[in-house]
Amino acid sequence: MRWTLPPDRLPDAWFNVLPHLPAPLDPPLHPATRQPVGPDDLAPLFPMALIAQEVAAEPWVDIPGPVADVLRLWRPTPLVRARRLEEVLGTPARIYYKDESVSPPGSHKPNTAVAQAFYNKEEGIARLSTETGAGQWGSALSFACQLFGLECHVYMVRASFEQKPYRRVMIETWGGDVVPSPVDDPDHPGSLGTAISDAVRDAATRDDTHYSLGSVLNHVLLHQTVIGLEAKEQLMLAGEERPDVVIGSCGGGSNLAGISLPFVPDAGVRLVAVEPSSCPTLTGGRFDYDFGDTAGMTPLLSMYTLGHDFVPPPIHAGGLRYHGDAPIISNLVNNGRMEAMAYPQGKVFEAAVQWARTQGTIPAPETSHAVRAVVDEALAAKEEGADRVILFNYSGHGLLDLQAYDDYLHDRLDG
Amino acid sequence: MRWTLPPDRLPDAWFNVLPHLPAPLDPPLHPATRQPVGPDDLAPLFPMALIAQEVAAEPWVDIPGPVADVLRLWRPTPLVRARRLEEVLGTPARIYYKDESVSPPGSHKPNTAVAQAFYNKEEGIARLSTETGAGQWGSALSFACQLFGLECHVYMVRASFEQKPYRRVMIETWGGDVVPSPVDDPDHPGSLGTAISDAVRDAATRDDTHYSLGSVLNHVLLHQTVIGLEAKEQLMLAGEERPDVVIGSCGGGSNLAGISLPFVPDAGVRLVAVEPSSCPTLTGGRFDYDFGDTAGMTPLLSMYTLGHDFVPPPIHAGGLRYHGDAPIISNLVNNGRMEAMAYPQGKVFEAAVQWARTQGTIPAPETSHAVRAVVDEALAAKEEGADRVILFNYSGHGLLDLQAYDDYLHDRLDG
């Protein structure tokens, strides 16, 4: 069963969780002075509209018309009940997923890319720079820039640029430029840290260019809340008063935030973050101020972190290989409003293949972490004989990640 | 703008075009006797239900409940108006497309794969064999077999097996076995001809196994008519009485048939087939009896053909590299009810990239042939200042064909 909404039922405002957090958010600190950063510190990199959204006090933030027009190319996304999986598991739980894989780039990422491209265009910016690892974020931003007539310059981790050409081709198909990072050392394989440094330097040294980030920051998470807002409405159409538990995979935190933040005020709804055992930020990190990047150029953020020099192993879920977490997500976990759990990737792909063979679609490695947790939650409900409504974010498809499935099916997967 | 239908609005019957053809269909002939084949000749390869559908006389054929249940995992598919493309072209035409790319395997192919798996299961068959070139059909059949608990054995053209591993991985993720063809010569690069021979031999020599074909045959085209039937209903929701022209790309003819056959009785609706200039079956072939395969093992079919030993150049639209065409499509073209046109792939990818940069999605190389014709039809309408409603089949996405875009964007494309 699927519940779709017509394009005119796209939410007209984003949900701002800041007034609903269990404790006030600690401010970001300037990397040199360690004093709270102000708007002027951020202005070389971001448009004022996004800087304002970082600290918005109002409960709702209107979605501008031109942003809504582009989002309606694929939104509202379907809410689907995973009945075939329920039957195979023999669970009394009812499993619903929000299908964000239907966007042109194939993930939830364009929800914020479109908004960021719009606000930058509004302020007269002609060009955006960004970093990308395997290419999910870079392709989403290239897509968004094309639709608003902005140039897009992507610094892609050199190892991915050379070994995973398909998302590079997506970036170019949508008109973006993409170069391997680090730009000044062609023998270096690169990392997200080097790519952030290249992208920030690019934006800081050109008047026509701003920098764009695909996760972690408050305004990014704000833009993703359309996911949970639509899901709330669709659950009602499905005859459910509310979910008992909301589950999302967590790297920087944006897809998890999208599905879960609108449920923060509903005290009876459990919220669950799922991360890889090999990069256990929420389950194994410390809650502290740390840099967002490896080189220590960004403001210090109050978050769970494994240390900004932590190098996660090369698991297939590249989008979950981040040393920190969004301050909003970290706040919710630190104050007990959100749970966190971690899985090794072998268990993750076992669930992903079970999903593909029952529900029919092939989930992204990142999304598969949520699938694993959903299966275990449904089996726990069976054990307890408990009625339970599970909602999770199907954040992206795995069609550009099939190498991971090949490795799993032929016993070449670590962990 | 998108028009979606809830799952319970899936059509409850397929549309049988046979009673509506401008002339009776010539019967297939036995390859040895050259006499019309009977049901007994086909029984070793196909279930009786499908053999009966080859010559169905009734105007509608009921869709069995278990088939509908699986189709509802992604059907009805959306009808979308390509407003951004219209604006860029400055055309008065209204362009609508039926988005078949939303199925789990990413194309229209599972519409018939699901039905074929069901009917074989009903007749006690445990295993299906088939051939696949780049893997679109093999992945769709593996998906369908998994959902009905059948084994699926795919013979994949060796060159694709070795050079294009991603669709092989899809086949395996859904539980199918896949081996390179020809099976008896590991140094041979293989062809669709060798793979058909391997698959037919497999089915003919095992009692538990039938053979499955993804295009050309009447029952395959019948199963695809859900596409056009849904589109008719959705066009009414969009306020359109009927399309002026219906366009689809044509290899064997199944996606074109799916969108166009339900419009055959509407005399005022133009129907247009689009094929590659390098494999110009309808525009450059002869109308004659010919074998469906290279080796001459299949019945002789009455169709447009370039000769069963024709070897098309290795264009990226692998699904359009077929020497013949479905007898139903050939009949419509031969009797003037359907038009045909051909494009070189350079012009095709030019339109595909324009589509990606306006509508946001990346079409399959096969689908891009239809996109090229749609753009030219819309520009003709602009030239004439004519109001015009264009409907086409967006038969699949290009996310597993990005190498083709890379070649186009970097001037490495032939033709």
Q: What can be said about this structure in brief?
A:
With 415 residues, the first copy, chain A, is α/β, with parallel strands linked by helices. The first copy, chain A, has a domain at 67-107 and 225-409: Rossmann fold, CATH 3.40.50.1100.
What does this 3D model show about the protein?
The structure is a homodimer of 415-residue chains. Chain A is built from 17 helices and 15 strands. Chain A is of the alpha/beta class. Chain A has a domain of 226 residues: Rossmann fold (3-Layer(aba) Sandwich). A 7-stranded mixed sheet of chain A has the order 1-4-5-15-10-11-14, with helices on both faces. In chain A, strands 8-7-6-9 form a 4-stranded parallel sheet, sandwiched between helices. Chains A and B meet through helix 6, helix 8, helix 15 and helix 17 of A and helix 6, helix 8, helix 15 and helix 17 of B.
Topology summary:
Two copies of one chain form a homodimer.
Chain A: E1 2-3, E2 13-15, H1 39-42, H2 48-54, E3 60-62, H3 65-71, E4 79-81, H4 83-89, E5 94-99, H5 110-122, E6 127-132, H6 136-148, E7 151-157, H7 158-163, H8 165-173, E8 177-181, H9 192-204, E9 209-211, H10 218-224, H11 226-237, E10 245-249, H12 254-260, E11 270-276, H13 281-284, E12 286-291, E13 300-305, H14 327-334, E14 339-343, H15 345-358, H16 365-384, E15 389-394, H17 402-409
Parallel strand pairs in A: 5-15, 6-7, 6-9, 7-8, 10-11, 10-15, 11-14
Antiparallel strand pairs in A: 1-4, 2-3, 4-5, 12-13
